[in-house]
Amino acid sequence: MNYQKLFESDINKDAISAWRASGKKALGVICCHVPQELLHAADVLPVRLRATGCEDYNEAEVWMSSFSCSFAKSILQYLIDNVYNLDGLVTSDGCMQAARIYDNWKAYSKKSGKEQTIIEIGAPRMNSATTRAYYKEELKILIDGLEKLTGNKVTDDKLIKSIEIYNEARGLVKKVLELQKAERPVITGAEAMRIMLSSTNMPVEEYLELLKAFLADVPNRKPVSGHRARLMVIGSALDDPRYIEAIENKGGLVVADTLCLGSMTFGDELKVSRDDVLGSIADYYLERIVCPRMIDNRDRLHALIVNRATEYKVDGLLYVKMQNCECWGGENTYLEPALKDAGVPILYLEREEKLANIGQLEIRAEAFIEMIEKED
After folding, report:
1. Using CA atoms, how far apart are residues 335 and 263, in angstroms rounded to an integer?
2. What's the whole-number mean pLDDT along residues 32-39?
3. To bridge 253 with a disulfide, which of 58, 115, 227, 360 should be the other Cys (CB 3.0-4.6 Å)?
4. CA 80 vs CA 86, 112, 212: distances in Å
């Protein structure tokens, strides 16, 4: 089976259009705190919204604050331009920018006369019995909206089946990422990012088949050569493989990440209790580590970053922050001591969604690589 589609990470609405042409619904998903299993169980195609390649968000900037990040403004621009062919969107208040896409698109679509299903759920910033109960009720509200949209009943059996399918995807992506642990991996960081981003362009069942084909062909792939340092990327939403390619063209090899549109999208297996299926989903999405938005998991997040840097034998870490990013804006203040204790050098980079300063990125990345590379 040809798996080349895994590396086609540009935004493509063909799968969405084909899905909707069959009479089914497709909803955009903003933020990884919206459980895609719920949409899948309602036979809705969940489309994780991205901003890859957006060069001009002038119209969105009229609607959104100048303090909004360019990632959020670019997503709103793509919604305005109908880059995605959707029946609506679902978001959480995972960060303030996601909430601003929600309320501005709700206002814009109403003004322009577009019929859209637009749902926002609250995602608590602490994990406790009280917040889990609240979040579970929010998921019930989402399910109610999905059932009204589709006419499909979301049952425990359907949810369990969807969980099994998404767990399989998590397991296969984990196998792909484990290839990067090798001294000479057979996959670059940009390729790994493309594989993960491509999941947003197709139904999960198709994604599974492509992943299986890729993994079956791994023995035929040649190891990556010519890199001078192993790198890890953390920070704000990053959805453009060209950013990683620019770093790798200067001798770095990105072997690990903790990006919300990268490895953190998939995470560990969701373990479900048949006694409380929806509660299991709520527990999982509040317990898992994705970004610094949770008030009470900072130490766990820092430990995960340090452990992953050690596990993947990185020579240095790139802390990539989107301008005006609420979650990652000042996290380096808390994280830096842990990385210094672990002996992991850090390069701080600030970016916008549009790759306007790629030359500056290359210069800084090359200087950092020269500083940390190890002589043979």
Report:
1. 19
2. 94
3. 227
4. 11, 10, 36
Token pair for residue 7? 């590396």
- The answer to whether 322 and 69 have CB atoms below 8 angstroms apart is yes
Across the strands, what pairs with 321?
Answer: 350
3-class state of residue 85 by DSSP: coil
Q: Which residue is it, tokens 């090899």?
A: 253
With contact defined as beta carbons under 8 Å apart, do 49 and 30 qualify? yes
Contact 317, 347 (CB under 8 A): yes
In this structure, how many other beta carbons lie within 10 angstroms of the beta carbon of residue 371?
12
Residue 184 C-beta-side C-alpha neighbours within 13 Å? 6
In one-letter notation, the amino acid at residue 29 is V
d(C-alpha 347, C-alpha 317), whole Å: 6
Phi-psi region of 233 (alpha: psi -120 to 50; beta: other; left: phi over 0): beta
Q: How far is CA 362 from the centre of its chain?
A: 24
Residues 339-348: pLDDT tens digits? 999 999 999 9
Q: Which pLDDT score, from 0 to 100, does residue 233 have?
A: 98
The confidence score (pLDDT) of residue 66 equals 82
Q: What are phi and psi of 80, to 5 degrees?
A: -60, -40
